[in-house]
């Protein structure tokens, strides 16, 4: 039997990580979801509809751009996978389009989601509007204040934004509220935004994001005559853009996979989100994975300048591939990411999202061989981060 890093066992484990830690009441929901995914998402009907929406609604394929000036600086061949050019400004919509088709096929009319910075909330509200489905997005009260433009976007798209008022009033509280809603309304569809949550979500989200590496393979073949690079670099919050960028290369051992986490103010500063270094095994959001927790098992509030990397856990697929050495994790500080954002802006005329800037900053940390081919997944555009850039670069 051939085994792949992407395979889970029957209980949804990637090696030691994963599974479905849900209340008994939700057991039928995750089983129904897995059955629907397996029976529907590999049919011609689904594939045609998904491909058509990715092309005409999302704007795929996204370019694989040869960054000539950046390449010259590092003495390498650097390609940027331009997920920043997707509709709504990031890769997240690849997943929400796929899941909304699945939800519709399952006869669901009420969609729920949780969001931290609001990016996944916007991507979910977008596809609910597209399909005419009801959308409720849970969001921490504190995040609602901090992320006003995304709250307004969700409202314009017809979604209801419900504040989570318990605990720290941030993402983990919004997640608790969403799960409570799901228990009380088991007919609703819970649309998860990264390769996290109970099995089968990590598998489903990774599959929907795998369009990224599928396109990279084809585009690299056209540009270099070889369908795989020496390295793929992607930032990791929960890990969906990384899972998508790595997907078709996991089992090609010569391709180095680099997952870039947010070190925040520094790994040992107490203000970090470098989960693979600081995390220990525990159950978060319905799966057993690496998470930042204190001695009592309480989740430690993460910190990163980029809202999308500010997550206390990491998807079980990444926990497994990092633990087994297939993937290399690197941590980048807030300041290093800011400098990388400025550098890309000036060298290539592309202002990246702060999350993506972490992946770019990793170029300074890698042991690079001359003339290597490196693909950096540019997960999103910088428009949403202009307030931070204005504050940090006010002297320009
Ligand atoms: C949400 C987000 C991320 C982090 O999420 P992953 O699931 O780790 O990909 C990274 N980049 C951008 C632009 C985002 O919006």
From TrEMBL:
It comes from the Bacteria. Its EC number is 4.2.1.20. GO terms for molecular function: tryptophan synthase activity. The modification N6-(pyridoxal phosphate)lysine is found at residue 92. Pathway: Amino-acid biosynthesis; L-tryptophan biosynthesis; L-tryptophan from chorismate: step 5/5. Its cofactor is pyridoxal 5'-phosphate. Residues 59-380 form the Tryptophan synthase beta chain-like PALP domain. Keywords: Amino-acid biosynthesis, Aromatic amino acid biosynthesis, Lyase, Pyridoxal phosphate, Tryptophan biosynthesis. GO terms for cellular component: cytoplasm. Signal peptide: none annotated. It catalyses: (1S,2R)-1-C-(indol-3-yl)glycerol 3-phosphate + L-serine = D-glyceraldehyde 3-phosphate + L-tryptophan + H2O. PANTHER family: TRYPTOPHAN SYNTHASE (PTHR48077:SF3), TRYPTOPHAN SYNTHASE-RELATED (PTHR48077). Belongs to the TrpB family. The beta subunit is responsible for the synthesis of L-tryptophan from indole and L-serine. Tetramer of two alpha and two beta chains. This is Tryptophan synthase beta chain. It comes from Flavobacterium akiainvivens. The lineage of its organism: Bacteria, Pseudomonadati, Bacteroidota, Flavobacteriia, Flavobacteriales. The gene is trpB.
């Amino acid at each position: 039997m051939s085994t792949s890093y992407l395979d889970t066992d029957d209980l949804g484990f990637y090696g030691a990580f994963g599974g479905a830690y849900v209340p008994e009441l939700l057991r039928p929901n995750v089983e129904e979801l897995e059955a629907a995914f397996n029976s529907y998402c590999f049919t011609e009907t689904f594939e045609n509809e998904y491909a058509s929406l990715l092309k005409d609604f999302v704007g795929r394929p996204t370019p694989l751009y040869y960054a000539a000036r950046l390449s010259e600086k590092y003495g390498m061949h650097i390609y940027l996978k331009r997920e920043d050019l997707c509709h709504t400004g990031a890769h997240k919509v690849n997943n929400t389009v796929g899941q909304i088709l699945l939800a519709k096929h399952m006869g669901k009319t009420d969609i729920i989601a949780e969001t931290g910075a609001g990016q996944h909330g916007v991507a979910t509200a977008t596809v609910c509007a597209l399909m005419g489905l009801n959308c409720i997005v849970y969001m921490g009260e504190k995040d609602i204040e901090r992320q006003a433009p995304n709250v307004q976007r969700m409202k314009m798209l017809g979604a209801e934004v419900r504040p989570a008022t318990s605990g720290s009033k941030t993402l983990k509280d919004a997640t608790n509220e969403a799960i409570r809603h799901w228990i009380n309304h088991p007919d609703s569809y819970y649309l998860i935004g990264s390769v996290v949550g109970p099995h089968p979500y990590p598998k489903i989200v990774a599959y929907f994001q795998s369009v990224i590496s599928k396109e990279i393979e084809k585009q690299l073949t056209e540009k270099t005559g070889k369908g795989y690079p020496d390295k793929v670099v992607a930032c990791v919050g929960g890990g969906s853009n990384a899972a998508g960028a790595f997907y078709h290369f996991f089992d090609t051992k010569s391709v180095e996979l680099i997952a870039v986490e947010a070190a925040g103010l520094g790994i040992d500063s107490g203000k970090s989100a470098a989960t693979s270094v600081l995390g220990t095994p525990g159950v978060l959001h319905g799966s057993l994975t690496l998470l930042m927790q204190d001695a009592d098992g309480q989740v430690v509030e993460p910190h990163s300048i980029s809202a999308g990397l500010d997550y206390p856990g990491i998807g079980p697929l990444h926990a497994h591939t990092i633990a087994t050495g297939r993937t290399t994790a690197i941590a980048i500080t807030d300041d290093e990411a800011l400098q990388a954002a400025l550098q890309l802006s000036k060298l290539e005329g592309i202002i990246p999202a702060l999350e993506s800037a972490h992946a770019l900053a990793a170029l300074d940390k890698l042991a690079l061989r001359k003339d290597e081919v490196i693909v950096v997944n540019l997960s999103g555009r910088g428009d949403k981060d202009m307030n931070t850039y204005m504050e940090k670069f006010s002297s320009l």
